[in-house]
Amino acid sequence: MIYLDYAATTPLDPRVRDAMLPWLDAETHFGNPASDHAMGRSARAAVEQARTEVAALLGCGPDEIVWTSGATESNNLAIKGALEFRGLQGAHLVTSRIEHKAVLDTCRYLETQGLRVTYLTPQADGLIAAEQVLAALRPETAMVSLMWVNNETGAINPVAALASQLRERGVLFHVDAVQAAGKLAIDLAQTPIDLLSVSGHKLYGPKGIGALFVRKRPRARLAPQIHGGGHEQGMRSGTLATQQIVGCGMAFRLAGEAMADEAHRLLALRERLWTALQVLPRIYRNSPAEAGVPGILNVSFDGAEGESLRAMLPALMVSSGSACSSATREPSYVLRALGRDDELAGSSLRLSMGRFTTSAQVDAAAAQVVEAVTRLRAWSPLWDAAA
User: Fold this and answer.
1) Which of 22, 57, 63, 130 could disulfide-link 162, Cβ–Cβ 3.0 to 4.6 Å?
2) C-alpha–C-alpha distance, residues 352 and 354, integer Å
3) How many other CB atoms are found less than 10 A from the CB of residue 172?
4) So what EC number does this one have (predicted)?
5) Could you give the CA distance from residue 296 to residue 351 in angstroms, rounded to a whole number?
6) Average pLDDT, 10 consecutive residues per value, the chain (387 residues)
């Protein structure tokens, strides 16, 4: 088995697992972080240490980190919470057609409650330009929600350049940074983003834990989405999962330490993979070569029906797009927004690499894909090699 689906989830780093294990101890480390006794205070100290580690990677204060169950909840809390606090009636939001479903479905729900939404179409390179966002603003625009890195193509949006312009216009800025954290340098002390979502399992941490950055100055105010107990400064009630939080903190610390070296290594692997695939004619790169994160390569293969292609790669763990959308079996809405027709969008593979990917795995994966595509084209009565 060759795992090239790091954009969907990452394996738990052994060092993260080791950090978590003491907090699963049935005798000494099971205290509730909200309890005011020795075991509770010990758990609370571990939670706060992890909060500091997440904040360090994002360049913000620990008191600006709110624990959630993951980025889906973080996105919901950011968008619903901010707009409900402000008042939905008459409010306007700007986002893009290539956001994660956790943002798009949240926006569509809020449209039923009176919110008006503008959905921007990406440029041919897969990016949402700052000029597009600014042109879509209205006097009643309350928020812009934009992902920093697209989870299917790896395209990096100009979030840092846009943030200061939105601040000048008094528009709240939410950023889904799930694919950016640990891969790009983020300094929220210098970049005036108001709300930013991250997830533990994308950075070799445990599933079921994430965080939302909520700026203190100027304060981004949220209406809580989960009530009961007033945990996390009243923004997210619920008993904290100490072991998962500790794992998340360790994962973010390790990501920060390895980020520069990993970026260089993954860039080399990505280009090695792309070069090996180019022995095939009529393939199309959906990931930008320059303005893209190093670990994601999305490619469409003309003449190779998508489900058949994936069925012929049983030992290769890859995806056709976002893991959260794969159950629909429909061509990627992200690639269709980029202008790919349904056939090409359906015949695409997202090959994403990470901390434990090797050159040998990349070479073997490329060979398997080339063989599968070649066989499918040979079998297809519609394939014209000379076209």
Assistant:
1) 130
2) 7
3) 24
4) 2.8.1.7
5) 6
6) 97 98 88 94 97 98 98 98 94 97 97 97 92 98 98 96 97 98 98 98 98 97 95 95 98 98 97 98 94 96 93 94 55 86 92 98 98 96 81
**Bridge partner residues of 117 (DSSP):** 93
CA angle at 110 for the pair 109 and 112, rounded to the nearest 5° = 70
- The token pair that represents 281 in the structure block: 């004619």
- Whether the pTM exceeds 0.70: the reply is yes
CA separation, residue 185 to residues 139, 188, 297, 361 (Å): 32, 10, 20, 28
Under a CB-based contact definition with an 8 Å cutoff, are residues 46 and 39 in contact? no
Q: How far is CA 95 from CA 122, 144, 194, in A?
A: 11, 6, 15
Give the integer Cα–Cα distance in Å for 122 and 329.
23
Architecture of domain 14-254: 3-Layer(aba) Sandwich (3.40)
What is the distance between the alpha carbons of residues 107 and 117, in angstroms, rounded to a whole number? 7
CATH dotted code for 2-6+259-374: 3.90.1150.10
Please count the residues of the chain. 387
